[in-house]
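Case study B.
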Amino acid sequence: MNVFKTRHLPLLLTVLLVAGPAALAQQEIASHPRDLVFEGLAFDPPDASQSRYELEQGAVAFVVEDHELPLVNISLTIRTGSFTAAAQAKPGVASLTGSQMRSGGTTSLAPADFDEELDFLAANVGSRIGSTSGGANMNCLTKDVEACLGLFFEMLREPRFDTERMDLAKSQSLQGMERRNDSTPGIEGREWSRLMYGTEHFSTQALTADELDALTTEDLAAFHEFAVHPGNFIFAVSGDVDPAAIVAALNSRLADWPVGETAGDVPEPGFEPLPGLYLVHKEDVNQGRVSLGHLGARLGSPDRYALQIMNDILGGGGFTSRIMSRVRSDEGLAYSAGTAFGFGVHYEGSFRAFFQSRSEAVARATAIVLEEVERIRDEPVSEEELTTSKASFIESFTRNFASAQQIAGLFASFELQGRDFDYLNTYRDNMAAVTAEDVMRVAREYLHPDRLVILAVGNVDDMLAGDPDNPEIMLESLAPAGNVTRIALPDPLTMQYPEQ
Amino acid sequence: MRRILLAFGVLMLVGAPSALAQQVAPIVHELENGMKFLLIPRPGDPNISAGWITKVGSVDESAGITGVAHLFEHMMFKGTETIGTTDAEADRRVIEHLDSLKAQIRVHEQELVRQQRMGLIDDWKSPEHRTVEHQDLLDDFETVLGEQKGLIIKDDFDRIYTGQGASGMNAGTSNDFTVYFINVPANKLELWFWMESDRLNNPVFREFYSERDVVHEERRLRVDSTPTGLLDEQFNAMFWESSPYSWPVIGWPSDLYGLTRGEALDFFDVYYAPNNLAAALVGDFDPDEAIAWAEKYFGRIPRGPREAEPVRTWEMEQQGEKRMTGTAETTPQVQIRYHTVADGHVDEPALLVLGQILSGRTGRLFKSIVEEQELATQAFGGQNGLKYAGYFQLVGQAKGDTAPEQVETAIYAELERLKNEPVGERELQKVKNQNAAAEYRRLQSSFGLMVQLLIFEAGRGWDTLNTSGPALQGVTAEDIQRVANTYFEADSRSVAIYYRTESDEPEDPRLAGLDPQEKQQIAMISQQLAGATTEQLDILRQQFAQMEGQSAQVPPENQDMFQVMIELIRERIAELEEEGE
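Model:
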């Protein structure tokens, strides 16, 4: 009897205490989660224009307040990169300038002293320059924001470019360059870019040891002078800040900082990939890495939503996607398999199906992927596939807004890319509107089985020999346009490719 | 396989020592069956981070069933009477059939194991030693497994969550606890209650024997085939004498072969009973509604047959220094461990701060042994307080031709300095400043806060989140000198020295400073990153931003690895950006 009492009393109390939702507790438990009924999620994406500030000297800031914790976060995006003419003239200068801003100290502080100052303030500060953008960030306690901003701007405006720290970074880069041909993922990525965008485009240029060696601290200082100035700045500020105060603090540091040259437009590749089967030989691996595809679309494409769903069902959606399900779950040919449909900001991204499988199975897995590319063009996707795919995009949309830092960062990336903020407001409706017919239409329009580039990196002899149990499928017979080309590995330090 | 890894990453982040300046006050609601809910409504962010923890880890295992806690973590994703099957009744019959076949097979296996023990056969697993009857049973087993395939809906659990916009589902097992977590959109909280209570209330451990093999593969991948995996495992086993911390979380291979479903079920009944569980929710929800759902869904699960008992066996006091040497394809290195104190001991804050004084870019070991003496490429140390015992571990990676023994001597010199003179005022203040900031930073992410609440609750109680910070801020230079003298005794230490076996495989130079486990983690992460696509760019960027935000809460000894991780993600983002342009 005692047991009986204790078992029911607390439940009763709860029912009394939480009168409203308690009604829920008395309902039957649904027999399957599909029977659960969810309220719509009332969520409006935050309005970017409310957060946007035009600063002195052409800089822009997005400020998103969140006073829950006494922390301030500033993430600066810089419109520059290795694509600029100045960087192309001195290969490697952009990336080294980016890392050395933080590592090399400032005109008033030696590198070790600069590290010590930041550590004492418990501030996280970093800097970098990539291919089409650069950046710097700081995170500190509200009480230290003045001191940190001081150090942050000292780093941005007057970096020292210390020779010792630069030499250390160079020796580390060199060690990395020596390993360029060691890993098949690295080779695959490099050769895929070259096949998609050609060997002349900035995005496919690989630094040589001589070029790295030739860089001087004067080069870094000159590139810094060119690239790092307020005209190129987009700030994303989040956390415990008063927008007016932080805008004033930023402005006071920008006002006397002259605006320099603009970065210019990112060059397009102007290259048409040549269909074919491309083989890169690595003797000592038992796994083939395969990439298969062609150019994709631009970010602004009106077909973006249907393309995302098409890609998700074809191979982008992990375990639930067709290629993963056939290549991995059904056939056990690969641990990882899928597709990516790239939307480029400045030029077309690439559509790429990929998998890694044991050498003998490469031909069979390739054939399956080709079948699936054909199938999604030939027949409409099922209602269930469409619903699941749309739901996963729509329902996880809110994850983009999980913190003030994320929101400010999202706005800054839209600003950098010149995108319309309204995209965020209409995204879910646009996704919801995609039909099975749309998916088939974009598959036909954007997937071109006759124009495929197939890149296979691994033991070429084993991959070509195929699987004795399935002799009817041979890799060479799958070569688009009958074109089979072998790519020899370049010298990792000079990046000279041997004549074939 | 992926499940255990991620959780280790999380542990690394939240295990950071810290001082607290911000009081966290969850709504605490305990069900009549003993399950505790910790609720922190955080309106604004339209998501909810949700998870639960069970106070069971490898420390609760015993000889013969090592690895069962971790195997359970895998089994929990295999569905229930409703999820993962097309016909629960037929599936149940198949499972029982499989169990009975396995029991008969085991008799044959035990005979073969005996023969191997007597030296009559080389390997009990090799097929040529099997009797016809034995082989028939194995064939029957395969046939029945084949029949079961038609009844199983693969990855149903993942699929249902994903289709509703949930993300980041994962779990992890440690020495002391097992934790399960996910993020759900704010309007889908009831789905979480349904799914999680269902797998606790109606679990079906289908695919038990094949999942046992998956774990075996995981062991091969993570331990056997990594350069120092087996050495590290043996060093740990050498360090602990009587304590159950001596066996690895993943278990000994022979135990993995032998585990039965019956043993797993007994384990479940005690350790996965609601009275051994705690759940936490952080995000945009109505706490009254959440409590009502907690009562409705988890309230139906009966209390366990008995309470889980604390571990009985104490570690024996060490009687003299223990040393081991080994060779591996790795940077020559030394690892030194001293027995110290369990999590929550009064001396722990001083030991934690002492570790911070030694570690990091501007810490003593790096400045002295790496920068000034140029003996090592990396050197760090820190306190690890487990539930029932703890240790202080120091690691030094030898540079170039330097012998690891030279690094060892240099580390002892730094420990002597700590014993003989109090640390400087500014040095101590720097560590305290970092701890104070870390207190806030670790609360930034709802997901991180949820996981910390759970881990603290499984340890000394969730309020540790509020008390650990002030304890660290209270540490004095005298405290540090005192604990250095108390715990850094030659007689209580164990030392492992690894020499390099020559290998052709060159290593990423950035990994030079990392310990073997960290390298392994980095290797896993690189692999995952290599598979990331332009579609996942936004997720990667988010992760990157989050990690940068979190970097101060990473313990100093893990900073280098963390920086490499950040760097790898940054590189991958850059690559993908180019790809996408």
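Chain B touches chain A through 86 residues (CB under 8 Å). The remaining cases will be described in the next quarterly update.
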